[in-house]
Design brief:
The chain is of the alpha/beta class and 220 residues long. The protein has one domain. 37% of the residues lie in helices and 25% in strands. It has helices spanning 4-15, 29-47, 119-128, 152-165, 181-187, 201-219, and strands at 20-21, 51-56, 64-65, 82-87, 93-103, 109-118, 137-144, 169-174, 191-193. Strands 2-4-5-6-7-8-9 form a 7-stranded mixed β-sheet, sandwiched between helices.
């Protein structure tokens, strides 16, 4: 069973030595799991030849990467929340965030555990104190860290969420699985990755999904 210490080590190994993560092995495992999946998104970006830099919602480069540990708005500045800036070789720019809200087709704001969206949309939303729109997002990831299998209610919830977001590539990832998970998501044509943990074969599959999303973004 993957522990909080395992996840904290994986997060630190990706961000160090440039930054110290705000989360440690004493943090909640579900927060660490979101941070871990975020670093896999960064790994995918780096393999697609994106330059990865880091910023915070307050002026100045961060020394500590401050992760959100509860749902929030992209413009919230009560803490020096951090995010990554992904710049392609052709100059296209995205941002990657943890735990921010995104407006769906219904104009309802949904929490995205990990979100990749267009840089200009993020900049405008911080300036105008509004939530970003789904049409300006490229990838949204729902992260589930559990000791046992996922129940059907969670799976149904993700199908509804991804239907309302529509525009970004929506994926659900988990450290566990359930007997119905693959069958359910295949029937609804949704992306998922189970048994995603540090050192697992699922890491490369998920990183490949990230790379595919970023490749399509550069090709549009």
């Amino acid at each position: 069973m993957t522990t909080a210490a395992d996840l904290a080590a994986a997060v630190a190994s990706h961000l160090s030595p440039a930054l110290t993560p705000s989360l440690t092995s004493a943090s909640h495992a579900f927060d660490l799991y979101e941070a871990y999946v975020f670093t896999l998104v960064l790994r995918g970006a780096e393999r697609e030849k994106f330059a990865v830099t880091y910023e915070t919602v307050v002026p100045g480069p961060p020394n500590v990467f401050t992760f959100r540990t509860s749902p929030g708005h992209i413009y919230t500045s009560t803490q020096p929340y951090s995010y990554a800036v992904l710049t392609s070789q052709s100059g296209l720019v995205l941002e990657a965030h943890v735990g921010v809200r995104l407006l769906g087709k219904s104009h309802v704001a949904h929490e995205c555990d990990v979100l990749v969206l267009h840089r200009q949309e993020a900049v405008d939303c911080r300036a105008n104190r509004v939530d970003p729109r789904h049409i300006h997002a490229e990838m949204a990831v729902e992260c589930k860290f559990y000791a046992a299998g996922l129940d059907l209610g969670l799976l149904r919830g993700f199908v509804g969420l991804s239907a309302d977001l529509a525009r970004p590539v929506s994926t659900i990832v988990s450290n566990v699985t359930s007997t119905s998970m693959a069958q359910f998501f295949k029937a609804h044509k949704r992306l998922w990755e189970d048994h995603l943990t540090p050192g697992s074969s699922a890491e490369e599959r998920f990183v490949g999904d990230v790379r595919s999303a970023l490749h399509r973004f550069q090709s549009t």
